[in-house]
Specification:
By secondary structure, the protein is mainly beta. The chain has a single domain, classed as LURP1-related (Porin), CATH 2.40.160.200. Helices cover about 10% and strands about 35% of the residues. The chain has 2 helices and 14 strands; from the N terminus they run H-E-E-E-E-E-E-E-E-E-E-E-E-H-E-E. It has helices at about 40-45, 190-205; strands at about 50, 60-65, 70-75, 85-90, 95-100, 110-115, 120-125, 135-140, 145-150, 155-160, 165-170, 180-185, 215, 220. Strands 1-2-3-4-5-6-7-8-9-10-11-12 form a 12-stranded antiparallel β-barrel. It has a two-stranded antiparallel sheet with strand order 13-14. The radius of gyration is 17 Å and the shape is globular.
């Protein structure tokens, strides 16, 4: 496990961090509200990110950068897998977490994991009676944390809380590289890593046939051109 304060890897069962002396809860628990991994907090400490969907010469690899263009992490797609699978890692190869797309489920689903394999949150396609469908973010107890409103295909949508408060916005207003988009995070109520993972999962709803015709808000949009 990791120290919640300094991010140092420590042995399970320790009551205090051997690096900085911080008292540790046992066992440490993950949640969508506050990711416990110190390294993830350090990597995604800001509020504005650029997702570059194709890194030159690196197949099936995204880059996550800050507004200054500094590379913070890679998102790599496993080429051979039953259902889409991605993992996040730092430029030096340290694993940060994973996203798994589940094929054999009643509703299309993505699971977001931390580096230790603990599920932090779940993205599910919710059918909303006659109003279409939406992709919701839920905690591990099945409670809604957030949902999307806007156009997924054009990377122009907001992530909002169940009460309608904006958590983040996905857009292209300050990116110049083709296929890239920006993420503005307005509140830390949901961990930035989970917001980024949520947005990247939405990139793959159509190409992996996890969501043909994804409904956003009150409408339906086709992802056949993604």
């Amino acid at each position: 496990m990791f120290c919640v304060s300094c991010g140092k890897t420590i042995l399970d069962g320790k009551k205090f961090c051997t690096n900085c002396g911080t008292k540790l809860d046992s066992p440490q628990k993950s949640s969508a509200i506050s990711n416990q991994t110190g390294l993830v907090r350090t990597v995604f400490a800001g509020s504005q990110y650029i997702i570059e969907q194709k890194i030159v010469a690196l197949r099936n690899t995204f880059g996550i950068k800050n507004r200054n263009g500094d590379l913070l992490a890679y998102v790599k797609k496993q080429i051979v897998s039953f259902g889409p699978k991605f993992w996040f890692e730092t430029p030096d190869g340290t694993k940060l977490g994973e996203v798994h797309g589940l094929m054999l489920t009643v509703r299309p689903t993505f699971e977001i994991y931390d580096a230790q394999g603990t599920i932090l949150a779940i993205v599910q396609k919710k059918i909303l009676k006659i109003l279409g469908s939406e992709w919701w973010l839920e905690d591990t107890a099945g409670q809604e944390i957030a949902r999307i409103k806007g156009n997924i295909v054009q990377h122009n949508f907001v992530i909002q809380s169940p009460t309608g408060t904006q958590i983040a916005k996905i857009h292209k207003k300050w990116v110049t590289v083709r296929g890239s988009y920006g993420i503005d995070i307005f509140t830390r109520d949901v961990d930035p890593y989970i917001i980024i993972a949520y947005a990247i999962a939405m990139d793959n709803t159509g190409s992996n046939r996890l969501g043909q015709g994804v409904g956003v808000g009150l409408g339906m949009i086709s992802l056949g051109g993604m």
